[in-house]
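User: Quick one: structure for sequence A, then sequence B.

Assistant: Sequence A:
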Amino acid sequence: MERQNAAKQASGKGTSRKARNYIILSVEVLLLVVMVGVLWFVTKFTDEEEGVKRVEISTEDIVINEGVKNEVVEKDSDSAEETKGPTYRTIALFGLDSTIGELTKGTRSDTIMVASINNETKEVRIMSVYRDTYLNLGNDTYNKCNAAYARGGAKQAISMLNMNLDLDITDFVAVGFKGVMDTVNAVGGVMIDVDEKELKHINDYQMCMAEDMKIDYVKVTETGYQKLNGLQAVAYCRIRYSGGDDYKRTERQREVLQAILEEAKNIDVATLTKLVDNVFADFYTSVDLKEIVTLLSDIGSYTLIDEGGFPTLEYRANATIGNNVGASIICTDLAAAVSEFHERFFGQEDYEVSEALTQISAQINTNTAPFLKN
């Protein structure tokens, strides 16, 4: 919060606490809107075979736990009859650990988000799944959840989310480091407050990514509130060694996204065209292109009302699971955590998890118990 306040003071743009909170909550859903918008412009201005990488996904390609419900069942107040409540559209968002544009598989997902859209009210909720969470990878093997995308691409990563969270996701959007880097550059850079602990790590990450991408980089030489270019901003997002681990890194990612939003507010047509030209090849999705246009035409009716991370503090612990898995986040009671998640994100009171998820929860407890005791 101090960092955000310092940023506001330095920019001279006063705003109310309510407005600041709304901006923070809106960042991730606006990122989705930006991603969808870019996809739409790509289909409008480029040939299909040269545009966005797209894959068809059917329910036969992925795992969905039997008994999963994506709608709320309500009792009629005047009778004992049950009536169906709103249904939800759920989309997976993956930010990939890729500097060279590999988006199909073989790359771990640094960022994993689930967007829940109430089809009736147009309310949107966003949840981040911490990448180091020890879960079923969608094929009854267990490891850090970000390994699912690397091993089986989007289909396995979606199966991982469905199996561990009792979801029925069939659509996703994925983007790599280059897409984020080009987006930051397209808006002219972002203003970020860099502290002393972060300074060294920014340059270390920059050096590694620049070597992989065969590009030059500019060192960040001072602390304080300053403009970062695309590579510097991505490097800042990746920091996890100056305290706070992945939880703090998630805050940095949100800070950069918020800064992108601030810069994008004054974007002109030329800059937008540049953004589209730079990033269109860096997206991979299953979303139907006609649906993208429909979403854009109705985007004004969507409102973000909640966001968070999974597992929540109440249900998580940290442990090192052998040499093959390493330092991980353990969901100490996956069944209870998922029940709470469904109530919060889908309005399903007293949600009863599927039998398959109950078994996964028990298996996680069995696998991790020896390491939690140490």
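Sequence B:
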Amino acid sequence: MAIVFISPKKRQRMFLLLITALLILSLIIMSFVTFFPEIKNKFQNVSTEGISQIPDVKINFSIIDSPAVENLELFQELQIEFSYIAQDENDNQVIGKIISSSKDGAKKTLEERGLKVSVLEEANLGRNNPFVSY
């Protein structure tokens, strides 16, 4: 008869390996037991009675020709505030603000008023403190 000595570290590793294997095996068995009915139900025949019916979609295009739609007003262009520095006919510097839909429109309006525009910039690009309520 031979005597076999197993070191305590090897015995400890074998014990941890055995416990880990048992835990993994029990997790596999529990998941199989838990999810097997769902997997089994997925492979059973599914009735297609309600799936194959496509609903009828009816669109009434006559509403587009109705007077309510014809009387709708178009959207107005977004008005932007511009600050300007210009010179009038007497070469006096004029500083002010003007509201227009575009930079070219603002410049054209100022020139129609007889002003020579030297600086035209968009004012109020955003709020100084967006976290303060109105």
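The chain is about 35% helix and 15% strand. The chain has a mean pLDDT of 83.

User: Thanks, that's what I needed.
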